[in-house]
Design a protein that fits this description.
Elements lengths: L1 E10 L2 E11 L2 E6 L12 E4 L1 E6 L15 H12 L4 H18 L1 E8 L14 H13 L2 E8 L21 H14 L6 E7 L7 H9 L7 E5 L3 H11 L3 H7 L7 E5 L5 H9 L3 E4 L1 H6 L7 H6 L4 E3 L9 H16 L7 H8 L1 H7 L28 E4 L23 E6 L2 E2 L6 H13 L4
Parallel strand pairs: 1-4, 5-6, 6-7, 7-8, 8-9, 9-10, 10-11, 11-12
Antiparallel strand pairs: 1-2, 2-3, 4-13, 13-14, 14-15
Helix pairs in contact: 2-3, 2-14, 4-5, 11-12
Length: 446
């Protein structure tokens, strides 16, 4: 049992004062407003922890790289970096990058992982790369949904190149066999969950997708890249006569446990399919801008009732407020209007929707509570005990209603992060740890 007192908390879409929050294990069990402080007191405003629904943590090594190039040339450099990784360097890079996420206010991460094997495709004996990520997350204190990825082709009907050999299990049966073995090897912890990913329509055929989905547990989360680049759509139309979203629908992939990532270049019919199936969309706007992907049809997706979430993807920046602000600002640029997304919705995009993406089997839990009726964003009984404290004294927040902070706040304003009811103390070596491992991977002296 943990108990915290906050002078101000985002609850039911408004700021409540003098709030005591109790948790049992990793779940909030009681929220009481207008109460007295106790010894577990934080200054600042408490808001729900942010969910990073799409991360390739090793991409942190490419931050600032690739000027003057397009997505496809950037991808070649990404493959070179991937093939330098070994379990030890992967662990050290991930631990430091996850610590950076925690300091920024992310309390959970969906790690879209496909660097499975040794560079020549030889299997590691004990899920070494997968467990390196899981152990890194545990040591950083962040929740992880490891989205172990099926990656079989370089394009429709195109075999993998040498630089992609370590991503593949040979066929979908081999991937499923390893996935289930990995499930047995995962440590037991409320911070750890195993999910699944199908890399894309380029990397997994429709028949393979159907086989993969049928071989997974019923409520395992499934994530997949969709329509990030126009070329992906064009190749899919040539191969299958369908858009990538239509391929997913026919293969039985779209569902309320599925999250499609990027979804940048969608047709009206694509949006209707996503909405009809209650599929979630993970937007990674800082990455999509960095790679020149394009701008997602945010307003159209919201108007159709699609749940949106955010992800860091290549970690251009590690800042949930930057992602949320860019979701809204790009929607403004496309529509020519302001206030496209209500701030209450932005908070949900950053937190509650992300939890539903990473933990689709987790439904609301029933507890006695004195929480006001919860119709808006904020902390709520039954939610994960994941809380972020934001310092209102920052000059950038001066005079701004805290409910509107997604439009103006930054990761630097986060002063404390509580995950699963535990306050995660910040280390002071994250930057140095990142520098050392990145210099090692690049062949430089620190």
């Amino acid at each position: 049992m943990s108990e915290w007192f906050f002078p101000r908390v985002l609850v039911a879409g408004r700021i409540a004062h003098n709030v005591r929050v109790r948790s049992d294990g990793d779940v909030i069990t009681d929220i009481t407003v207008d109460t007295q402080p106790d010894r577990h007191t934080f200054n600042g405003v408490a808001v729900p922890g942010f969910a990073n629904t799409h991360s390739h943590v090793f991409h942190r090594g490419l931050r600032g790289a690739g000027e003057g190039e397009d997505f496809w040339s950037w991808r070649r450099e990404m493959y070179r970096l991937a093939n330098r990784l070994v379990p030890d360097s992967y662990y050290r890079l991930a631990r430091a990058a996850f610590a950076e996420m925690v300091a920024a206010g992310y309390t959970s991460v969906g790690e879209f992982h496909y660097v499975h094997h040794q560079p020549d495709g030889t299997l590691y004996p004990h899920h070494d790369m997968e467990l390196a990520l899981v152990n890194a997350a545990l040591d950083a204190g962040i929740r992880i949904t490891l989205l172990d990825t099926c990656y079989l082709h370089a394009g429709p009907g195109v075999p993998l190149g040498e630089e992609q050999a370590r991503f593949s299990d040979g066929d979908v049966a081999g991937w499923l066999e390893r996935w289930h073995a990995l499930r047995e090897a995962m440590p037991e912890s409320p911070l750890v969950r195993l999910g699944a990913a199908l890399h894309s329509v380029r990397a997994v055929s429709p028949d393979e997708m159907a086989t993969a989905v049928s071989g997974l547990p019923e409520r395992a989360p499934i994530h997949i890249h969709v329509s990030e680049q126009p070329r992906e759509n064009e190749e899919c139309q040539v191969a299958y006569g369908l858009t990538p979203t239509a391929v997913l629908e026919r293969a039985g992939v779209l569902s309320d446990r599925t999250t499609v990532v990027h979804a940048t270049h969608l047709s009206d019919d694509d949006i209707a399919m996503i909405a009809r199936s209650n599929t979630i969309v993970s937007l990674c706007p800082t990455t999509e801008a960095d790679l020149g992907d394009g701008i997602a049809r945010v307003k159209d997706l919201l108007d159709a009732g699609v749940r949106l979430t955010i992800g860091t993807d290549e970690d251009v920046v590690t800042d949930p407020f930057a992602e949320l602000r860019m979701v809204e600002s790009t929607a403004r640029l496309v529509s020519g209007t302001r206030g496209v997304i209500d701030c209450d919705v932005l908070w949900k995009i950053g937190s509650r929707n992300g939890v539903e993406s990473l933990y689709p089997a987790a439904g609301p839990r029933s507890y006695q509570t004195s929480t006001p009726a919860c119709g808006g964003a904020g902390l709520a009984v039954g939610d994960p005990a994941d809380i972020v404290v934001v310092d209102p004294s920052s000059p950038r927040l001066a005079g701004v209603d805290p409910t509107r902070w997604p439009l103006v706040a930054a990761a630097e304003d986060v002063t404390a992060t509580i995950i699963a009811g535990e306050w995660i103390r910040r280390g002071d070596t994250t930057a140095e740890d990142l520098r050392h491992v990145l210099d090692e991977l690049r062949g430089r002296d620190s």
